[in-house]
Amino acid sequence: xxxxxxxxxxxxxxxxxxxxxxxxxxxxxxxxxxxxxxxxxxxxxxxxxxxxxxxxxxxxxxxxxxxxxxxxxxxxxxxxxxxxxxxxxxxxxxxxxxxxxxxxxxxxxxxxxxxxxxxxxxxxxxxxxxxxxxxxxxxxxxxxxxxxxxxxxxxxxxxxxxxxxxxxxxxxxxxxxxxxxxxxxxxxxxxxxxxxxxxxxxxxxxxxx
Length: 209
What we know:
The protein is mainly α.
């Protein structure tokens, strides 16, 4: 299926992507309350009529955008090889990719934006959480269960242990960035944080713990 807009024809999937890209730039610049559908249509290069074919409200567009951002992120970050016997190496790689994503200015801005919008629309925060953090935790939980079964870890509650690892890795870093406190995060700081997270995690959940 295709739609005509602004003198050209695009496949439906491409048109939706064009709208989401335009919406992202407007929401990031103006926040949820400050953005308008007219402004989003202009940024996306489509008519308001075309915009409303895909999204019947600003709320629906915002929710679709934030869900897509977090769902794709969980799938990209939490690709864990359950057959790799070197659990420390697997968790170290995860920790570094996780932190690299957490500190991206665009990611911090999205989190800040969703928090602000959730005061008026609580479902935004719930959906964002379920599509991102909850999915990531579930994937790490499944990996940890596999390692327990293989005798490489000793964990009574893999879900809680997964949350422990992720919180150990960022340990207040995201909060600092959300408040724009402190200087930029260096690669040296990230590596130190991840090394310490893995060390503490194994002190609690290693096979000899």
